[in-house]
Design a protein that fits this description.
Shape: globular
Radius of gyration: 22 Å
Number of strands: 17
Order of helices and strands: EEEEEEEEEEEEEHEEEE
Mean pLDDT: 91
Largest sheet: 13 strands, antiparallel
Helix content: under 10%
Oligomer: single chain
Low-confidence stretches: none
Number of helices: 1
Structural class: mainly beta
């Protein structure tokens, strides 16, 4: 059944059994009882929070000059942001907290850096495949989320450089706007009911990225009416929490083009 080729989330894993929920269909899988049929499930590599805090060296070469480099040492990812507007480019940002900046006369690398991606910039119109709320398709007007690892610099008297980077607890907040159609979603704000969001993006080289925020609480909400001949908009804010069974706050999974439906 071609309609069963889709992105799905594993709900239950038990001995000899995987229970999965399709993301990009309105219902469940179509029954296919033909003899000899097989099922292929591909898991993409993923990044989650609550992992080891790595540090990187970031280098800028001033190519109009000869052997002049700006080198930022011990840079640990501290903040992450993603904005999906109604129209326009999808924008992301990563903020680093580091140890020290130095000037270099030679590269820190091997002299053959990997070129930047040539894939076109993703847009909210062309590259958002799916948005789900509580694993059900959900139409939105905009979506944004930001995370902060709450790192800190450890310094000491007598040294201009940071001695080490201290880890902290991840915090996450976001905003979402949607047409106000029923009370169902808005009541999750009024009743402080947990929900979750999953977004699937496909870049222009057909690679896919799945951003999963499995547990959020809606912490701000208003039904916005701007005047006659306008739609009522649900303008919502949310705070991210750790999912009770998955044990994470955020998960980013990548699938190569060959492994996607």
């Amino acid at each position: 059944q071609a309609t069963n080729n889709c992105f799905a989330k594993v709900l239950v894993s038990a001995a000899g059994t995987l229970q999965v929920k399709p993301l990009n269909t309105t219902g469940d899988f179509v029954t296919d009882a033909s003899a000899g049929e097989s099922v292929t499930i591909v898991m993409g590599p993923e990044i989650t929070n609550a992992k080891t805090c790595y540090a990187y060296n970031v280098e800028v070469e001033f190519s109009d000059l000869v052997n002049v480099f700006k080198q930022m040492l011990g840079m640990s990812p501290n903040t992450f942001g993603l904005e999906v507007p109604l129209e326009g480019n999808i924008t992301g940002s990563i903020g680093f907290l580091g140890s020290q900046e130095t000037s270099g006369s030679a590269t820190l690398g091997d002299g053959a850096p990997t070129a930047s991606e040539a894939t076109d910039v993703m847009t909210a119109v062309d590259n958002v495949l799916i948005f789900t709320e509580n694993l059900a398709a959900f139409d939105i007007l905009s979506f944004g989320v930001s995370f902060n690892n709450n790192l800190r610099q450890r310094r000491k008297v007598g040294s201009p450089a940071v001695q080490s980077i201290g880890s902290g607890k991840l915090s996450g907040t976001g905003t979402l706007t949607a047409y106000f159609a029923t009370h169902t979603f808005y009541n999750k704000y009024l009743n402080f009911t947990q929900t979750g969001f999953t977004t699937v993006f496909r870049d222009n080289a057909s690679n896919v990225y799945v951003l999963s925020i499995p547990a959020v609480k809606l912490t701000a909400g208003q039904r916005v009416i701007t005047g006659t001949n306008t739609d009522v908009i649900a303008d919502m804010g949310f705070t991210v929490k750790k999912h009770a069974t998955e044990g994470v706050m955020v998960r980013l999974t990548r699938f190569d083009a060959a492994d996607t439906p």
